[in-house]
Amino acid sequence: MIDTRRLRTLRAVADHGTVTAAAAALHLTPSAVSQQLGALEHEVGHRLFTRDARGVRLTAVGQIMLTHANEVLAQLERAEAEVAAYSTGAAGEVTVACFATAISAVLSPAITALRTGSPGLRIRVLDAEGDHSLTMLLDDRADLAIAVEYRGAPDAADPRLHRSALYAEPFDLVLPQDHPLASAGGPPPADAVRLGELAGETWIGPYPGNPVHDVITFACEQAGFSPNFAHCSDDFRAVVALVGAGAGVALVPRLALRDMVLPGVAVPGVAVPGVAVSGVALPGVAVPGVAVRRAPGPERRVFAAVRRGAEAHPLLRPLLGTLHTIADSLGAG
How far does CA 131 lie from the centroid of its chain? Predict the structure, then answer.
């Protein structure tokens, strides 16, 4: 294997034209330079220099080796620069496992912000449900997870993880437009529907195992009944579309509803055409035939997690800080 130090010596001699000048540039003795050149010629198996009255010059094989030496040494310089940048958190890649709504709500805006604040930081995103993201983190398939509280989730004292809360968002009740409870009874909070009023309904929601399924089930149990999930989908657009088709009722996290356009429907905290409510109108998919009501009680609590000890990592610090800044601006409740 060719020693890269000898490649540096080769280039110095080629640059300076004499062993003595190259030795001075390399802070070596002329004898040490000659020894390194001899060792390199032995490694290559060819003469690399010829001597004349003016010094040394490269042979044809020496020119070939110089070309490759320049490429190898340039790559080493790039590696050293990247390592130096990495050590200060200026450059590198972080893999984030995150569920779809949080990708839209906090991760994508954070990536946009970091392009300016930390341009060398590259974010690789893996779409994963709130429980799967923690498994990916603990299996070293991700560096950071954005996850949801659920029954059986590792708690804040888990020695494997460092957790920090991002945001909590309420669930809103999505009903078919012709449902008896679809008409609001007055301004908030009088427009809220008690979950106990929906004990006999057909329900639409995520599959068992999805953290949101756990939150909905627990909220309904607290209201005195177990929900009858006749239709299951982990895609909230599909859930709302099924409600619009009259297939049942659903509880949907508010930020998931913000990604949809519900014509003529007042989504709490979201402005839609023709409806006077406070908030911001966001583009999305039109879903006709539904009404959205408040449902006090259930919340989706979202947190960021890294492997314990990694919270001070120079690449993770700016990402975590930006995620918290974005989350603080959400006003999810």
Answer: 15
